[in-house]
Amino acid sequence: MSDATKSQITLRGVTRVYRTNSHQVQAVAGVDLTMHQGEFVCLAGPSGSGKSTLLHLIGTLDQPSSGTIHFGGRDISGLSRSASALFRRTAVGFVFQTFNLIPVLTAFENVEYVLLLQGIGAAERNKRVTMMLDAVGLAELAQRRITDLSGGQQQRVAVARALIGNPSLVLADEPTGNLDSATGESIIALLRRLNEERGTTVLYSSHDPRIIAWADRLILLQDGKIFEDHRQTKVE
Amino acid sequence: MRMTDDILPGRTLSPALLGAHLQIALRNILRHRRRSLLTVAAVAFSVFCLIVFQALMGGLHQKMMESALSLDTGVIQVHAAGFARNQTRLLPLPTPKAITIAFKAAGITNFAPRLKAPALIIAGRHSSSVYLSGIDPAQEASVTLIRQKIVRGTYQLAPGQVLISKGLADALDLNINDSMTLMVQSFFGQTRTDRFTVTGLFATGLDSFDQSRVYLSLATAQTLLDAEDSISEVAAACPPAQAAKLAGHLQQYLPTAAYQVMTWQELVPDLAQLMELNDATFRLLIIILFAIVAMGIANTMTTVIFERFREFGTLTALGATPGGIVSLVMTESLLLGLFAALAGSLTGFGACVYLARYGIDLTHFTSANQYFVVGSVLKAVLTPGDLILANTITLATAATAGLYPAWKASRLNPVKALSHV
Ligand SMILES: Nc1ncnc2c1ncn2[C@@H]1O[C@H](COP(=O)(O)OP(=O)(O)OP(=O)(O)O)[C@@H](O)[C@H]1O
Ligand SMILES: [Mg+2]
Mutate which of A7, A8, A58, A61 to disrupt the B interface (most B C-beta within 10 Å)? Predict the structure, then answer.
């Protein structure tokens, strides 16, 4: 099997240029990248190096100015609004720095929403959400309003929401950025465990060396380009 | 390969998803209690006004119609062919018996034959120009309300007796049992005079009518005018809405070569026009009122969208389609409209029940108005159609007002929306 068929995500010559009144910003300046199913990858680099932009491009929330992005052999760099929504619905889970849960819904309902989008029946939704909340250690808090949860608990709900639809990829932009270091580490450990248990690819960004250390592949960005891309092993 | 199977959309907006959107919308409305309450109250007030105004307008039209038609005109009139409105020349109807048969055949039971002619009333040194109306008292009472308007004496018309108004009696210095002289031009063109006794005084409240009307029995009028067995018009009472239908029936029995059948719309065209004008003015008011309602809801929803940019960005990231976002925003807008429609309908209905019972006393404004002869208390008349219309307009307005904010929210750039603070 060739590398191209085995790969899950392939970026070829991807750029993203922001045009402001006077000048242009190359947020992503020609990225070639291949990722495989089940990898646990960290994007690191200085502020403004293009980490968020790259994650948005892979997650089809944004579209490249040039270059192509293939996901499972399919070009996803030019999808329409609706087509990209349907793609994300089943293929990608997101975890955000600011949690971004729906404040008027309970933990259970926040996680369930993805399954509603997928059109899954009530009985199976119940079963799967209950199991998922159990897996992230929130079985007891399922019926709590989001506003009554701590930051760490909220991010656990977000992780459950990202994984409930069985996506093959989870994108997490600084998932521990708003958490204290111990809580942050528990969240990255949770992501790592789910990655190992379910084989879900995880691509996350971080500034925190202790969080970066969890990855088994580290991609360093600088000025929108890949500066370093290597495998690493966690030193306990 | 597996990919394409995975992204098959299935049903994008399942009932369960719409149910979740209803829940999200409802909780958001409750969460921003004060804002929601203000919006709902403003819209509900408009609904309230719409319902109450509609019902008062219905009551006004009913009263105007009753008054204008029950004074003298009736709902349908039959004359001899060639009759013109306000004509004074005596034009007798051919074969009065045939008309009675025609009315019965058409299913109209309340009708009154009349013989009308101009006359001069002379009492002592006073005289006044009047209009004689020879009537059958019992039949006349089934069409007009003149019997109810007797204020002194009786509503009986023996030969040689007349009814005049209180106003005319005062002007001519007459009282019950006083006598006076009537001068007419007979059917054959001769001047005739005779003496009569006043047996009753009436007062309709409409001076122009009161000052010029003298009632006497049909037989007395026929003798005075030398017009044995003649009548000049038949007026009938029936629900105004059925006028056209019943007039059609009548026409089947009364050949147009000899008879002219007229409905109230033709007899008092100014009344029909006045009511149409009222309706048109009211429609304009509705449009203005609900343009304001639309702006109110649109303003609230725009604020809602702005506050929840990040939420819509998140839902988009989770895979909500533009249609899904539209449904969420529209649900919230429609819920606001629904609450307002409910509140406005309940209070409006309550007000209408009160106003249907007690009404608004307009005595000070209507003393000389032909449209308030039956009474000057304006009562609300609310029909189910009015309620349905008010609620439909409200929900349609809420939907329309939600459309633009919903479209805005569905077109948000998810990256920008997610970084919105
Ligand atoms: N909407 C935008 N308009 C103009 N320039 C933008 C926009 N978004 C990002 N940029 C620019 O693109 C570059 C990359 O931004 P990006 O947010 O991807 O960096 P980052 O690595 O995520 O930074 P941080 O670590 O601070 O989150 C920056 O120079 C930024 O100023
Ligand atoms: Mg960033």
Answer: A61
